[in-house]
């Protein structure tokens, strides 16, 4: 399987995933992220206890890339300390900017690495990064 096949499979799988698409009963923080150029509009809800993200939920709508990126992110940050979630956001954004290219380091992003070549599609970069920028803003509120 080449990278474009993996990309398509990951976008399809996570874009359809409902695992993190439900409101949380008692979110500690909610942050909205909007990309007006393409209509992506997401709301990230986090339940945090003792500095650990116990639950992450993504609400809203958008293109398959933004929805898949959001689902991948939610899965990665759940159960992680907030500092680790912030570091993963920086790692993902660095990968998209091509600042981080070390494959061992990028392995931490798990399926998120399938979005690595989105930087070659400038019109789609904002779609892939919106959830991660929203996460950074949400973490600032804690």
Q: Could you describe the 3D structure shown?
A:
The chain has 5 helices and 3 strands; from the N terminus they run H-E-E-E-H-H-H-H. By secondary structure, it is an alpha+beta fold. The chain has a single domain, classed as Sufe protein. Chain: A, CATH 3.90.1010.10. A 3-stranded antiparallel beta sheet has the order 1-2-3, covered by helices on one side. Helix 1 crosses helix 2 and helix 3 runs antiparallel to helix 5. It is globular and about 40 Å long.
Shape: globular
Compressed to H and E, one letter per element, the order equals HEEEHHHH
User: Order of strands across the biggest sheet?
Assistant: 1-2-3
Compute the gyration radius: what is it? 14 Å
**Extended strand count:** 3
Biggest pleated sheet: 3 strands, antiparallel
Under the CATH scheme, the architecture is Alpha-Beta Complex
Question: What is the total number of structural domains?
Answer: 1
Mean pLDDT: 94
- Count helical runs: 5
**What is the terminal-to-terminal distance?**
41 Å
What share of residues is helical? 40-55%
| CATH class placement | Alpha Beta
List unreliable stretches of 5+ residues: none
CATH topology: Sufe protein. Chain: A
SSE-based structural type: alpha+beta
Strand content: 15-25%
State the main characteristics.
3-stranded antiparallel sheet; about 140 residues; Sufe protein. Chain: A; alpha+beta; globular
Q: Strands, helices and their partners?
A:
Layout: H1 3-16, E1 29-35, E2 40-49, E3 52-61, H2 64-77, H3 82-96, H4 103-106, H5 122-140
Antiparallel strand pairs: 1-2, 2-3
Helix pairs in contact: 1-2, 2-5, 3-5
């Amino acid at each position: 399987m080449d990278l474009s096949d993996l990309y398509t499979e990951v976008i399809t799988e996570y874009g359809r995933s409902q695992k993190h698409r439900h409101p949380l009963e008692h979110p500690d923080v909610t942050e909205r992220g909007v990309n007006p150029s393409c209509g992506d509009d997401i709301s990230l809800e986090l339940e945090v206890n003792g500095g650990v993200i116990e639950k992450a939920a993504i609400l809203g709508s958008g293109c398959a890339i933004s929805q898949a990126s959001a689902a991948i992110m939610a899965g990665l940050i759940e159960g992680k300390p907030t500092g680790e979630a912030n570091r993963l956001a920086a790692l993902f954004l660095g990968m998209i900017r091509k600042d981080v290219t070390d494959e061992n380091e990028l392995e931490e992003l798990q399926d998120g690495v399938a979005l690595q070549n989105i930087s070659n599609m400038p019109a789609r970069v904002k779609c892939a990064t919106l959830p991660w920028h929203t996460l950074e803003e949400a973490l600032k509120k804690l």
